[in-house]
Amino acid sequence: MPHVALFLQLSGVLIGCVGLAYGLHPNLVLAQWVGLTVGPDTLQIFRAIMGLYLGIGGLLIAASLKPAHYQSGLWLLGVFMAGLAGGRVLSLLVDGYQHWFALLATGLELGALALCAWYFKHTSASAGL
Asked: What are phi and psi of 96, to 5 degrees?
């Protein structure tokens, strides 16, 4: 399924770009997106997040290169999106209304999770699993 490869590649690139935004200039990006100022002592946290996002993005791109790895890539992306969306939903329930960006991100993460489930179902059926 070539669409699975494209989905994994696009997801990997987008996740990598978000990681770069978090890590290269967190004060600039986070101030514009959510009004958050990052102090010098916490910059390393956002750079670690950048590394995590870049690693996951790279693995998704690698998984897109061989059909035998599509399902692993979909699992990785699905778990990653479920974790992000789950944390945001928990924050919404515990903390109340969130910034518009958090709501947008939650919607995108849940959408990506739904696509993962759909692709996983269809790749499993075509592979005879």
From this structure: 90, -160
Helix ranges (DSSP H) in 64-99: 70-95
Distance, CA of 80 to CA of 112 (rounded, Å): 10
84 Rama sector, left if φ>0, alpha if ψ -120 to 50, beta otherwise: alpha
Mean pLDDT of the region 85-102: 90
Residue 78 or residue 120, greater confidence = 78
Q: Cα(26)–Cα(104) distance, rounded to whole angstroms?
A: 19
pLDDT category of residue 126 using cuts at 50, 70 and 90:
low
For residues 113 and 74, give the distance between their C-alpha atoms in angstroms, rounded to a whole number: 9
Least confident piece of the model among 33-42, 46-55, 57-66, 68-77:
33-42
Token look-up 């390393």 returns 44
- How far from chain centre, in Å, is Cα 111? 11
